[in-house]
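Box 3.1. Reading complex inputs
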Amino acid sequence: MLIVHKYGGTSVGSLERIENVASRVAKAKSEGNDVVVVVSAMSGETNKLIAYANHFSATPSKREMDMLLSSGERVTAALLAIALKENGVDAIAMTGRQAGIKTDNAHMYARIESIDASAMQHEIALGKVVVVAGFQGITEDGSVSTLGRGGSDLSAVAIAGALNADACEIYSDVDGIYTTDPRIESKAKKMDFISYDEMLELASLGAKVLQNRSVELAKKLKVKIVAKSSFSDAEGTIIGEEEEGMEAVLVSGIALDRNQARVTIREVSDRPGIAAEIFTKLADEQINVDMIIQNASSAGMTNLGFTIPQSELAGAKAVIEAFDHDIGGMDLDDSVCKVSVVGVGMKSHAGVAATAFSALARENINIEMISTSEIKISMIIAEKYAELAVRTLHSVYNLDK
Amino acid sequence: MLIVHKYGGTSVGSLERIENVASRVAKAKSEGNDVVVVVSAMSGETNKLIAYANHFSATPSKREMDMLLSSGERVTAALLAIALKENGVDAIAMTGRQAGIKTDNAHMYARIESIDASAMQHEIALGKVVVVAGFQGITEDGSVSTLGRGGSDLSAVAIAGALNADACEIYSDVDGIYTTDPRIESKAKKMDFISYDEMLELASLGAKVLQNRSVELAKKLKVKIVAKSSFSDAEGTIIGEEEEGMEAVLVSGIALDRNQARVTIREVSDRPGIAAEIFTKLADEQINVDMIIQNASSAGMTNLGFTIPQSELAGAKAVIEAFDHDIGGMDLDDSVCKVSVVGVGMKSHAGVAATAFSALARENINIEMISTSEIKISMIIAEKYAELAVRTLHSVYNLDK
């Protein structure tokens, strides 16, 4: 098997931990696998370098930031290759450039355009473990580029795709994806498997484990991800293609997003296109509108409700106030949260939503807004009920069994 | 004018000092010059990274060490470019690769083979200050290479040569080259000018300022070096071609090397080639023999005396003991030092050596060994007389005037 391992900043956060990683890689190699390892910078390094740059400038040049920030992963890659060789495992460290990773010119959040995997393949064929500095690539003009926060996950998935690897194992300090946040519901269970689509909907459950962009890329490239802990031998969670014939799990998990605010605009006038104007303006200000509900009300006037991240509330308020002659007024509420029920089984099963609604009703939790997709039901409720709602839903769908 | 600035680790040892460097570069640019800046890693960084690597291995792979160690200079280059831009000076940071520096494959002590200066020239033509990460280049197969300790000096001189720059200003925490070590002789004077050849002979006086390999390269490429302090506006010392017609200074400086040990092999047998055999064996063991004196003695036997660095004394002893049937015995003395008088004027003036010998004789300092070159007289004396000898010679050649 050809396996890509990816180790995050915490997993390589000290020399001792890098040694631990070397042992894990050596073990995988000794079991007969070909192994490519993608590493992040040692935890704290990237933030230190950002602080350095911000000492000089609040808006440092992005091209130079990429040259600066890419150094941390290079250090880890070189150290891990040295540690592997000392363990008797032949290894070679590669920068993003040497690994053939080409990106566009969008410094600090570059997109991978192509991977020329021939250099990696050459070294693999020689029996070497290839250790790649994650998070980085090279632009067409030869500048160093980085892929944005969590970009090493993206490097690992893209490399696994380019090498047609059997799996991409993403190691962190968490041993997999849970049915809900174990800090809220101690009965939360680690999942053995979750589909790409469910994982994308459950982003908040995987936030510490996996960058969302990398799940999207894995889905596109059909790369099987395994989320594992570098501090234990637990099995981890497979994130993969939903298999035909496999009986779909009705509900996979319950996600909670506390960073929600609700905006209600009252008595929006019936001038055509006014809602569209408001949302265009919000988009111009980079305000991410999530759920939207429009209620027909009396006398041709409507109420318009939507949710945004709490941090964008002030910006949204300013935008809406500019429309004051077209609206009756607005209400802002930042004491709400979003609870989501996710499962591919919803596609083919009726009644999943009804189960959620009645379970919350039994606890006297009022649902303020609802939005649904094929595999998700999201509900806006008062923030004070967040934990109760998560536990109630976790239990009603038998996730603790 | 096109000027290359090079700032060593102490000069960029903190964020404040990098800011200071940015001001100096901005000033040089504002005076109408084109400026290329070569930087070292922040002081302490390279040693930290070496310690990291040695945590894993006493003999870490040289290729991976180069990937590791080259990261420090990249950080400084990126930060300085960011600082310059914030000062309103357009700048671009370049790695060794981006600056076109190609080396051989001797990782950790690579030699520069060629510089393709076109990328630097392109940016200079756009009016930008080019900030190059020193100490590094790239091998033919695309691996990162480093040039050995002090290699950033070498980068700067090589770049100045490739760009046909008007000067290569090497900044450190010392403001130039002195006639002798000011810690020994407080009357030591900073020189305005010193020739390449003198500088090479006075290596110990420039040890904190300039790497010797870079003086050799500057001589070869005819690059004018100016050794200056990054902490003052003092003029510095020019290291350049000895000019025709310029009246050569008789004696430029007095150097002291305390790291000397003297080996005397008594009664070397007259078997042909025995001395050559001993020296070949010493060379095989990487023992650097400096001065050699062979005295014909009675009955066809000779005494053979030579000096080596003190740290290599044990190794030399082992080598020589293997010849015990060919020699009468050996004496080892590590309480000696070497005092050197250097000056291009010696070429054309007689009596310079005689002045030194009689000055030391007046102080009752016995000269144990002597070696001379066209522009240097070196003398081995007892270590206890080191300071006295330096002050005596400094005075007798009027260097304090």
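In summary: The domain at 253-396 of chain A is CATH 3.30.2130.10 (VC0802-like).
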